[in-house]
Amino acid sequence: MSIRTRYMDAPHKDRHDFSNLRRIVPFLWDYKGRVLAALALLVMAKVATVGVPLILKEIVDVLGTNDLPLVLPVTLLLGYGALRLLNVLFSELRDTVFARVRYHAMRNLSKEVLNHLYSLSLQFHLERRTGGISRDLERGTRAVSSIMNYLVFNIIPTAAEFALVAFLLLGDYAIQFSIVTFTTVIIYISFTLFLTNWRMHIRHRMNRLDSKANAMAVDGLINFETVKYFNNDAYEINRYDNTLDEWEDCAVKSQTSMSLLNFGQGSIIAIGVTIMMYYATQGVVDGTMSIGDLVLVNALMLQLFIPLNFLGIIYRSMMHSLADIDLMFELLDKKGNVADKDSASPLEVNQGIVRFDHVDFGYHADRQILHQVSFEIPAGKKLAVVGPSGAGKSTLSRLLFRFYDVDKGCVSIDGQSVNEVTQESLRKAVGIVPQDTVLFNESIYHNIIYARPDATEEEVFEASRMANIHDFISHLPDGYDTVVGERGLKLSGGEKQRVAIARIILKNPKILVFDEATSSLDSHSEQIILSSLAEVAQQRTTLVIAHRLSTIADADIILVLEDGRVKEQGNHQELLAEKGVYYSLWNIQQQEKTEF
Questions:
Q1: Distances 43 to 89, 92, 97, 296, 304 between C-alpha atoms, Å
Q2: Contact present, 212 and 10 (Cβ < 8 Å)
Q3: pLDDT tier at 131 (50, 70, 90 boundaries)?
Q4: Same domain, 189 and 145
Q5: Residue at 348 is within a domain
Q6: Parent domain of 47
Q7: Same domain? 61 vs 142
Q8: Which of 18, 60, 96, 321 has the most crowded Cβ, counting Cβ within 10 A?
Q9: How many domains does the chain have?
């Protein structure tokens, strides 16, 4: 059996339906006055509903007497019409009153889930499938709305109506009517619960396959260029279709078992109503019941069993919604690997001294990246980190931002461990231009001002000028309103990087990190940007991660990292004099430059 098959066939974990329902309640209780008003209107609507057969009984009995009335029972007819009107009025008022509760709960729950996703660590987001999570979130939010509808508009009203019918039967009619009613309802509910719960594993598998197919589609479209580079349109569509083929089989099984459930429910209701009508007819024959009583019992049974029949559908839908919402609450229950301590305080940056002290770190327990790394960036100085790919250079910036916690040692700013301060204050003080710049599918202006939303338009333009991109943007047909496309694909690598540089200039942090910040630029643009970055970095502590040694020759300190260990440390001239790793790298790059 393949890994994929084993994964997809794995049973879903035990759900916590009642626990999840309790977790929804606080979102409803923000408008508890409206909730209570909606419940009161619900009860009044059901009282009016049950009152209709009672009026109908009186009308039939009056018309069924030997002495026919000289006039129609106008009062009873008006009462009949008034009760039907009140039922509709109270039901619509209930819907109107509850609308604010329902949509407010959906809004707050959606916001909480998104807020929680932002609070999770980078490791979670590197491992997640965006399409699958977005589908789980969409289905979960929609399921909350459905569950509230089922509870307030179907389940509770049906329960209230059943209670009123039971009260009337127990109070005015022979015990067998109540016995048949209760027995039918119990058998119906038991059958529905048993068969629906048996079907739920099919729904779980359908959900997993649906999320998997959606994740495949989104992932392929996000990497559209890669798909086209390798001419893999058919491959991606085939993977997508194979997953949907499994989903289709599950959907057919789900529909078949639903038909069996519907037939069983209909049979139980038909048998129950038939037995009730037999007793009612026998009562009329025996003279213990009037024609009006027979009509009343029949109307009550139809009035009760019609919504009860829909209750079966509602229960199945609610179970499906609970399956959907369970996936959303799984997201809410995920814990991030990095979290603020209860005692965490805001970071106070005075000088901006960055220190790594005997740091050990690995993304996985069996693969250590950094080994006893120690260095210090003095206030206002520039430290450059160089070394071969995979040496752990970019890992340093991730630890400085506290996207991960170190395994051993300490990362500190002005003597304050990054583990002891709030992540918000830490990331406010540190700015980065990453090697792989990812932009929002919004305007260029939005992507730049994102660094500081309260910035003025002129500040945005000035930051763009310093990043040597203002003229380019100004000559675009839509200027700063140009939408950059998914992940910035409408811009070249150099243009994206200059937008990122403009963004960090606008942020104006006290500590700067440049992770291969000029790697996508041509030589001419690189020199202009390096000049701008040098101006921005003045009087700021700067960590530069570089591949081209020529871009960091002016650094105050150069750190040579190899296999996660600090091999050499010093300035450019000192490291060349040592004739070690840095010396070798410098000569290789100079030779490549000459040959080119």
A1: 12, 13, 14, 20, 15
A2: no
A3: low
A4: yes
A5: no
A6: 18-333
A7: yes
A8: 321
A9: 2
